[in-house]
Amino acid sequence: MTTTVAAEGRSGAPASGQRTGSEATPPPGGAGFDPSSPATVVCRRRWRPVLRGGLPRTVPSRLRLLRAVVLVTAAGLVGVLVTGGVSASGSWADIRERSAPQVTSATGLYFTLNDMDAQLANQLMMGDTASLSSLRAQAADIYGQRRGQAGGYLRDLAEAAKGDAAAERTVASAISDLGAYEEHAVRALVLGEQSHRPAGQADPKAVAEYTLATQLMRTRLLPEADRLVTTNNAAFEHTYADATGTQSAIRVALLVTGLLMLALLAALQLYLAARFHRVINPGAAAATVLVLTVLVSGFVQISGQQDHLRAARRDAFDSVVALTRARAVSYDANADESRYLLDRAGTTAHEQDFLAKSQRLLHLDGATIGTYDTDLASALRAYKADHARLDFTGFFGDEFRNITFPGERAAAERVLTAYQVYQRDDRRIRALASAGKVAEAIEYCTSHTTGDSNYAFDAYDKALLKLITINTTAFDRTSSDGAGNALTMPVGLAGGVMAAAGLMLIGLRPRLAEFR
């Protein structure tokens, strides 16, 4: 029995009714598709790596991939530069327009409150003595000025405190307490005027009202003002820390993206040299040089920003805060002399208050009111022999540990010399009062004649103001320099990166054109 082949004969011809493979499966490209055509081959070469997850296999596809990666990296580098510039510019605006002015307002309030109380004590202390009438009128005038300044500072601080519940409560309490203080002050002045008593013999009722006023000042108003100084200074410190931290992060990001772009440009240059047998591609080479310049310039710019931030905050403003607080405490100590002469029943307490404030200004371990002068002289001799030896702390200790700017050391030394004279004059006031010469002590305390106590205090205050001015001027200069190029230079460098990307594109164009 023989077998019949039904599907296909020996010759391979299809049997009747059987479709061929080409007929059974339509061509992928439809009618007329030619899988061997040049266009189809190029398409397969382009898309096969993508479909298989591999790297491009043709020269133009590799060049296009490198070009795309370089452009993405360039965009990242531009973003880093612009972000750094915007951040630095915003930080400087915050420091110059909000943080520093708020601290200045708080220290100004602390100072004016202290001087208000001092001038109130002076008016009551001088009494109705004719020879002191001009000084009494001067004290009244200064009291009025300080009162207005305190109100202005409180308005500024109230505006700045919006949104900060704790600061708002502190400012509101200070405003309320200042009103209560002024009520006691007015009653004390009226009672003093009605009594018509000479210097050193103030009316007990007036002294009692003044005692209530000054207690309110020392137990509520001054702590509130000091708290505002601390709060606003801490906010400035937070702004400074954020700014320096952001600039450090920007520097790291600049390093990473800048080096990555340089590496990509170098790889592109090497590939072009190997594939096209050319030593250098001018466009890629120029782009590499430009990116390297941007990277170095960006590092220098960020380092400069951090230097300006440190100089403005640490070198300048830290001293401004310490010295302005020292000036306020100095006026409070000067008021303690007036309180000592006005309130003879509380001389011991007022003397200890004066010593405590002297120690805040320049702290000497173990010093008493009787030994402070000799201890101070000893500490200054040690300092003059060796500037690195500072046997004192306090506000002036902070300043002498932060001497930075030209002329600052000499100015600080003049402050201490004047402070030493003022401290010695204080001992004479107490000696006169202890000897029963209260009227003479009052005249010596309030007189601006050369050699008298207020003359010495004014000389000390002027020296202190000059030292403060050195640091405020340095702060203004460094903050202005930092803000001046905070945004413009990064934007310019970003433009350099975009120019480098353009040069790279120009350099690649002729090579890619060879494959069209």
TrEMBL record:
TM region positions: 65-88, 252-272, 284-304, 487-508
Region (Disordered): 1-38
Domain of life: Bacteria
Keywords, alphabetical: Membrane, Transmembrane, Transmembrane helix
Protein name: Secreted protein
Organism per entry: Actinacidiphila oryziradicis
